[in-house]
Specification:
homotrimer; 138 residues; alpha+beta; 8 strands; elongated
């Protein structure tokens, strides 16, 4: 069994934004030498997501509006913010969009449908954060 | 390490519907010869889900109503639809229900609780679509 | 390839509650002897979740209120409850919070960010339920 571990770092200037990290993950797959296996990509922070969807700016703005409706930023809404934080909303938005994705590796490549792209989703930006890529297989 | 890759195809006559694919995944597990490992099942489209829940028609109708409330179809609501699409809602519904499941294989079988069943969830049907089954283990 | 399977059991006195199971999963990783691999943790019931977030009581109460808003318990709302159940809401809450997490194992340990903790999320408690830990790697 082969394995590879990579850490991706982010410092997103907005509170909420999405970054296409597909090519970073593809680089890791290539470097791993794995032909058949699984690739895990996850946020290492609990106010961020990794998800797979379309690289289309209109959709990304739709997501931001929708998530703001489902879990508004307003710091006064969350008990969590009594700890001195103002990111209670980010812990909720991340649950909707998910922590991680697991992608098949087939013939040495991410086994993706036509429009699948991997995104880091930030909900409490303006600080340094990390995502993890872990590959296992043969 | 053994591995197996299978593609399942769908052409769902409704815009939104759920299909029990548990037996297809069980067939793949059997064929793989894997006794201990992991089985990934994911939608290969960004307007569809793979999820695990109950095979109960009332619940499935509940899910449809609930998802329609959380992300209504109405094409005028989504910037994404300015690209010429009418499936903005499907990209949102899929995020609620998830892209993929990972299931343990123990003793050559899906290691499932009593009521766990795997479903393909379609949110933009009436076209040909695919899901992926990837098994690794020994 | 090494593998290990563990079943965790719960009997939560409340209908909805969250239990930190991080140390149980860490014990399984240690016992497995896996240095590089993947660890799957999933609910074996379709009215429960396994998720990763903060071990902060205010946030957990925020989650409960938010999930109750997104999928209220009121048994009369759900067709599913015509089968004699009263847990239709739990099947919805679990979809928001997710069924499972997959965590990287690096150097023999869960490869976690500072605040990541694993929780069993119960939405239809007061009965005996199970979660599964499956580890594969080398």
């Amino acid at each position: 069994m082969k394995s590879l571990t990579r850490y991706l770092t982010f410092e997103i200037p907005e509170r909420m934004d999405f970054v296409n990290i597909t090519s970073d993950v593809e680089d890791a797959v290539r470097e791993s030498g794995v032909r058949e296996g699984l690739c895990l990509v996850n946020a290492m922070h609990i106010t961020a997501s990794v998800f797979i969807n379309d690289d289309e700016p209109g959709l990304h703005q739709d997501y931001k509006d929708w998530l703001e409706g489902l879990a508004p930023h307003d710091p006064s809404r969350y008990r969590h913010n009594r700890t001195g934080e103002d990111n209670g909303d980010a812990h909720h938005k991340r649950q909707i969009m998910g922590r991680e994705v697991v992608v098949a590796i087939t013939g040495g490549k991410l086994d993706f449908g036509t429009w699948e792209r991997i995104f880091y989703g930030e909900f409490d930006g303006r600080r340094r954060k990390r995502a993890l890529v872990k590959i296992i297989g043969e």
